[in-house]
Design goal:
Largest sheet: 4 strands, antiparallel
Number of helices: 3
CATH architecture of the largest domain: Roll
Strand content: 25-35%
CATH class of the largest domain: Alpha Beta
Radius of gyration: 23 Å
Distance between the termini: 60 Å
Mean pLDDT: 77
Number of strands: 4
């Protein structure tokens, strides 16, 4: 009888652990979609999609106009100008792209990972 109870408890514990792990995985995979959090790397990739042939100079998370956005600076080889791409941190939508001249860029720090 003790062995039968031990087996039942073991099976029950295994089922609970499996359900707990499955629920954790499901909530982790849905969380970025539900909250719409765009990572720095994702924002950089979105900016590179807007400025073809460029490389990332800097990317930083800023707040303004009631929301958060990534300010990503992209430079192209052979160009003195950089493109500043604002990517909404919630949706990943490109909010703004503007050209920065060298004198405007002097205040911007270099990219750090």
């Amino acid at each position: 009888m003790k062995r039968k109870n031990f087996c039942r408890i073991t099976i029950l514990a295994a089922a609970l652990v499996t359900l707990n792990v499955a629920a954790g995985i499901a909530s982790d995979s849905r969380q970025p979609q539900r909250h719409g959090n765009v990572t720095k790397r994702q924002a950089e990739q979105i900016a590179l999609g807007k400025v073809h042939g460029g490389t990332i100079r800097t990317a930083e998370l800023l707040a303004g106009d009631g929301g958060r956005f990534w300010s990503v600076y992209v430079v192209r080889s052979g160009s003195m100008n950089a493109r500043e791409v604002h990517v909404d941190a919630a949706s990943g939508k490109v909010l703004n792209v503007q050209t920065e001249r060298p004198e405007d860029q002097a205040e911007e720090p270099l990219k750090t990972d």
